[in-house]
């Protein structure tokens, strides 16, 4: 299933990234209302899970 309804929101709870299973901390993130999942906002900017961002998450 491809999720296409990503919205940039601010969350107040911890979540798991639907892409890589890493923790998404409270703050700005992407949220899919239809799938009820979160995703790192930075993923949209870097688009590369092998970058330093992921090794520090």
What does this structure look like?
The structure is a single chain. With 57 residues, this protein is of the alpha+beta class. Helix content is 19%, strand content 33%. The protein has one domain (6-47). The protein is built from 2 helices and 5 strands; from the N terminus they run βββββαα. 14% of the residues are buried. The model has no long low-confidence stretch (mean pLDDT 80). It has a 3-stranded antiparallel beta sheet. The chain has a two-stranded antiparallel ribbon with strand order 2-3. A hairpin with a 4-residue loop joins strand 4 (27-32) and strand 5 (37-39).
Characteristics of this structure?
57 residues, alpha+beta, two-stranded antiparallel sheet
Number of domains: 1
Proportion of strand residues: 25-35%
Rg of Cα set: 11 Å
Strand order of the largest sheet: 1-4-5
Order of helices and strands: EEEEEHH
What are the low-pLDDT stretches, counting only 5+ consecutive residues below 50? none
Shape: globular
Counting DSSP E segments of at least 2 residues, the number of strands comes to 5
Give the oligomeric state. single chain
Number of helices: 2
Global structural class: alpha+beta
User: Into which percent range does the helicity of residues fall?
Assistant: 10-25%
How many strands, which pairing sense, and closed or not: the largest β-sheet? 3 strands, antiparallel
Taking all residues together, what is the mean pLDDT? 80
**Terminal Cα separation, in Å?**
25 Å
């Amino acid at each position: 299933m491809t999720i296409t309804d990503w919205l940039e929101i601010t969350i107040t709870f911890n979540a798991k990234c639907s892409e890589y299973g890493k923790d998404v901390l409270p703050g700005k993130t992407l949220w899919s209302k239809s799938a009820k999942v979160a995703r790192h906002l930075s993923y949209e900017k870097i688009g590369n899970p092998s970058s330093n961002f992921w090794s520090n998450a």
